[in-house]
Amino acid sequence: MEKFLYDKEVECPICKNNFSTKKVRTRALRVQKRDEDFCVTYKDINPIYYHMWICPECGYSASESEFNNVSKEQKEVFDDRVRKRWKKRAFGSDRSFEEAEESYKLAILTGQILKKSQGYIASLCLKLAWLYREQNHEKERDFLKYALSYFEDAYQNERFPIGGLDEVSLAYLVGELNRRVGDPKESISWYAKALDHPDIKKHRQIQLKAREQWRLAREQHQKKVD
What distance lies between CA 133 and its chain's CA centroid? Predict the structure, then answer.
């Protein structure tokens, strides 16, 4: 695994503990396939196993981009709600599926406790669903539903970009998540929202995907009606 991973030294913004976590060498990644909900499968290693950073001392968990984004008030809340109950354990070595799964659940819980943005929590739920997909695990559908709920709320109430996505991309993604959880009728309206957006021509790949998935959703909806 040394070919794909390297150690990153990190300081926890909550307890100031210094710890080591693994990061993936992006140049070593080779794409195997891309799913319509933006899930990318790579050969050799799955980089999302290592997207969450977890402090072994206090249990603070977040994505790399969100890790240092903590206010004084949030630190106090975390100390009271999590740190006092945390059983010290490390996530700094090669991660098994179970460790990757736990890292996302910890990050989701932390995000909820600290009242992080709905878009951020949605992105964590979506990546956890992708982990379950890799394992052909029945919980994939549950976390697609959680991601969908958070993304729909964020679309209505938060500023873009949301979960790293602009409005066109998120409208398309919400459509695709609706289709995957069994609501093709609702997905059709979201694909249409993406296709009708003034900036859709700047997103050629999304435009093509939305058209293709809109036709698929329409067929699925028709079968339900019949």
Answer: 13
